[in-house]
Amino acid sequence: MATKPKKVTYRDPADDNADYLVPVRYDLPNRTKSVPRGGYLGSIYLPISLLLYVGVPISQFVIGLIYVGRCTIRQFISPYMILSGAFGIAFVIVGLIIFMQVTKQSSLSYESPRPNPMILKILFPTFIFLFLFVIGWFIAGQVIVFEVKLDVEFFDPVLPEYCHGNLYKAAYILIFVDYLLALIAIILFALNRVSPPETADTKKTKRPVRNTRK
């Protein structure tokens, strides 16, 4: 025989004369599912880091395309800028997609669309590959750019030491900008470890107050 769900009454704090019947907590439908947030990849610090960084690869890609073949002393500076920019932009896009998928998976509900686990299985290794490539290419870029620092010539295109000032200076400065952004990303990662964002299931819910009046 089916049993009726138990009911309890609680007193509205705004109106002492009003009573309401509400189902107890275990009678309410389970509309949300709590899922771990996925650490740094699911925290707000990831998109902040990526959006701060995205200006660097965009600048590298655009400047590298504009000044192709304008650096005699080191022809590979322009291809370095183009590849660094292209892979950096891809790294940011993949990272943002992963953040949205992890966030969606962390707050499942009947109203929200369910995430596709296959997307994360593909994007995680892609994200790691792009990250390793960006780091390795960044290290290689320092050798490419800094090796000719003392010999580069900005004013006479005929000389074999010539490199367009906008190309070389941009490549030089953006390396130090990358170092600064890496430091900011490390700080944000540390903040996430010390004080991770709160999840939905940590929010306190009001418990009904039983009506003692007869």
Explain what this protein looks like in three dimensions.
There is one protein chain. By secondary structure, the chain is mainly α. The protein has one domain (35-193). It has 5 helices and 4 strands. It has helices spanning 45-53, 55-66, 77-106, 117-146, 165-194; strands at 7-11, 19-23, 32-34, 107-109. A two-stranded antiparallel ribbon has the order 1-2. It has a two-stranded antiparallel sheet with strand order 3-4. Helix 1 runs antiparallel to helix 3 (77-106). The longest helix is centred in the middle third of the chain and has 30 residues, at 77-106. It is elongated and about 60 Å long. Mean pLDDT is 78; it is low at 26-37 and 199-206.
Based on the model shown, name its key terms.
two-stranded antiparallel sheet; elongated; TMEM272; mainly alpha; 214 residues
Helix content: 40-55%
Low-confidence stretches: 26-37, 199-206
Topology order in helix (H) and strand (E) letters:
EEEHHHEHH
Dominant shape: elongated
Alpha carbon gap, first and last residue: 30 Å
Report strand order across the widest sheet. Answer: 1-2
Provide a count of the helices: 5
Total domains: 1
Count of DSSP E strands?
4
What is the C-alpha radius of gyration, as a whole number of Å? Answer: 28 Å
| Estimated structural class | mainly alpha
Mean pLDDT across residues: 78
What oligomeric state is this? single chain
The fraction of residues in strands falls at: 5-15%
Largest sheet at a glance?
A: 2 strands, antiparallel
